[in-house]
Amino acid sequence: MICVSIGRGRHRHMIAEHRHLVSQGAKLVELRLDYINGKINLKRIMAERPCPIVLTIRRDIDGGKWKGTEQERHMLLRAAIVDGVDYVDLEEDTAKAIGRYGKTKRIVSFHDFRQTPDDLAAIHARLAALDPDVIKITTMANSPHDNLRMMQLVQSAKVPTVGMCMGDLGTPSRILCGRFGAPFTYASFHHERLLAPGQLSFEEMSTVYQYDKIDANTMVLGVIADPIGHSLSPLVHNSALRQTGINAVYVPFRVPAEHLDQFLADAKQWGIHGLSVTIPHKEAVLKRLTKFDPSVKSIGAANTLVFEGNDVIGYNTDFRAALESVERGVHAINKAESEQHLASAQSTAAERPSTEESLQGKTALLLGAGGAARAMAYGLKKNGAKVVITSRTLKRSQQLAQTMGCDCIDWDNRHAISPDIVINCSPVGMHPNVDETPYARGHLRSPMVVFDMVYNPENTLLIKDAKAQGCSAVTGVEMFVRQALLQFKLFTGQSASWELMRDTLKRAIGPAKV
User: Is the pTM of this model over 0.70?
Assistant: First the structure.
């Protein structure tokens, strides 16, 4: 169950949002009365409530906005209990001063906005001694491991316990606490009005992560990155999980580089079966692998991990997806040329080269020298293309070119050659810098293939220029969806829908979002 927190300055707005949430499926709502401006009218707030409520009046020291006296706050809490409020949230010291009465259930809570203390068990024991129906412990996560410690506390608790970590490091605990036995989690009314750091909206929790369907048997999948907030992988993978009916959830894990080893060591206790890996971890994860696909060794990076028993198996779906995307562009040119030849009776369809042959002898210019370029270079070289690498950091380009057996040129000379294929492996042109391009329009020509790995926005300036110049343009959406499809198959053994993943991604990066 999801408890949705509402904090509004006026009674009518709080009541209206309460009713709206219930119409959207909410079954429990927390009313933060410390947000109310002026005198609080309890009877108005509680009258004809459409679903059970948790009544909370949080002080400044507890992260709230209450400006009145402690005596006034206690009087309001007691009055709500006498009037039969469903739940009342009481901090540790308040729970000592206000006893049980009637049918109101007591949530005894603890907050730490700086850290997740080492003595979680001792704190829980103190709260358990205060006659709670539910214990709530909310702390700030300073490492991914703090989340796991919190989940282990929830799982071992004899009193029903809601345990969550705050901050973007703590988001996984909000999504997965039900898997470990928490009676409910917390969400905000809207993603633009969060009442706690790292909190997700009710819509996200219910629609994207389907929190109420998560149970002890739910398989955990996810993406690890730092930063993580920009990732659209949870939207895409969770939509596929919904469609296939697999009991699994795909979670964003922010994992700073210094915590990577600990996180991967914790994976089994999380119940993690598969992970997408992105910046900055694609190379660093290699030392944790016990098995790997041959491409991983050649590329020197993995973007997919599968956990089987005691094994951590590494794969690289980037290069396969990127290669298929480039081949699609080449195939489009070959098809157009064949049609022209047929029209002039100079050729037949049988003479058109196959996709596998289409890269042989082609010159590909890679713009960028990071992990994406490394995967791209491997795939192109493997299929017979000549690869030239350039980036704004010459030394990095030289190192990658030497490793992959490719040529290298200075960034300022990137227009001096005439490639058949231009591939942007850099973030140039990515939102919000949508007016930038890594390759000048005047040097684009038909029948060049132009592939931009940037997918947000889909139609980057480079792609727009390529289309205007008559090139075969392939967008980053193509690659993103292809690699996600490959990952989904590795994670679940089932095939996801190309159309569903593509449409989900396109909606997320549509004009309203960029």
Answer: yes
